[in-house]
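Crash report, auto-generated. Payload:
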Amino acid sequence: MIRFQDVSKHYDSQTALRKVTFAVGRGEMVFITGPSGSGKSTLLKLIYRAEKADEGIIQVMDWTMNALKDSDVPLLRRHIGVVFQDFRLLDNCTVFDNVALALRIRGTQDRELKAKVFEALKLVNLRHKADSFPPALSGGEQQRIALARAIVAEPLIILADEPTGNVDPDTSAGIMRTFKDINARGTTILIATHNRELFRNTGRRVLRLDFGNLVGEEAA
Amino acid sequence: MGSSYALRFAVGSILREKWIYLLSVCTIASSLFFTALTVLLLVHVDSATRKLPQKFSVMVYLGESVSPEDRDKLVALVQKDSAVEKTVFISRDDALKELKSTLKDSAFLLEGIGENPLPDAIEIKFKSESFGPEAVERIKTAIKDMKGVQDVEYGEEFLSAVHALRKGLRTAGVAVAVLLIVGMLFVSYSTVKILFYRREREIETFKLLGATKRFIRTPFLIEGALIGSVGGIVSLAVLFALASVLVRQLSAAFPLLKVLSFPPGLAFALPLSGLLIGIGGAAIAIGRIRY
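Recovered output after restart:
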């Protein structure tokens, strides 16, 4: 599903990723961990083409990123759901419209859209906040809206950048349960986190990054 | 983006940024108003001067000794010119009759005159499309030295002045209209550009979620179209109100105002121009979207 071969990424004189090689199969749920600045976010950004690799080969589904045309980027992104570290919610739109945006971009019809949005909001326990605006919600609630938006269109891949960064342990456990359920339906999931508690005893693969190097791979 | 959602999104954005939009609508409305006013002025001057050839004619006065052959030659030469509509021969007797009927009650003034002092004459009428000082001058030069021609008379200075005025007004009008249209494009461009920058993060989110360029552009184009067409409708309303008041209130004092017409085409032309200018400015402002 996802394959990195000797991938490097530099920002000016700083190296964000150095010769990283790994592969994630269809339906896997994999954690990427490492301290702040180790390259976790960069690695995810390379998958949804928010960044371009300087060296190496990246393959996502049937696309080879190095050869991906600009016009194909929206199509690639519509196959991926992303939980952004900074949520990227639209403050002027209701919770409903924020989640619905992922479907509207995909051209989903209104009737189907409504049912799917409410289902996704129910999954993250925010059905009752559908008419609220993001600034009126807590950080944890905003994070769950971002999660609902990432899963609502049932993408083939979900990427989550610190998805439990702003939430209490109970909510965090709830979010992880949601990921597990979605993964059980066959969705490939990559979660970048520095919180070891999140993958402890999950039995999932963990890729460990340090200063841009992939320093190890283990089963949690 | 579904069209109803794009429209809702655009309207929502307009309501959030109502002051910027209001300012843009006012600027576009006033520019369209002055453009329409300029065009109206040009249309009226043009239609007034277009009627000139029907009233204007060149009179060629013939000498007493001119033979019918020389006269026919003269007429044939004049009629060869593409600007000439027709020629009318006015005999000295007909001219005297007309003079008497013109003078009516004062016809006694002519009683003391024994012999008819008026010469035979040829009146030259022009085609409206090729009428102008150049055509009149060309004919005058061609016939003035011909045998039998005593004098060639026309309102030379008046004709030149009217044509200079017409040309000048047309050039100035086109220049003003072009300037105002460029100005309106710039207003629409600036408004959308400002909002584009203000919503940069929003647009970036759209892109990251997989939105196509069309999905991102549509609301901005709708906003541009709305600014422009509302501006057009406002300018139309102001122009119509002004024209009605002018004709109603002032036509008693200035009868000329009665001929002022309000072309019905403007009812479509102004909102449509606003719409196109709004969309054009927005399209330029959005520019190329890169991923």
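Post-recovery validation: The radius of gyration of chain B is 31 Å.
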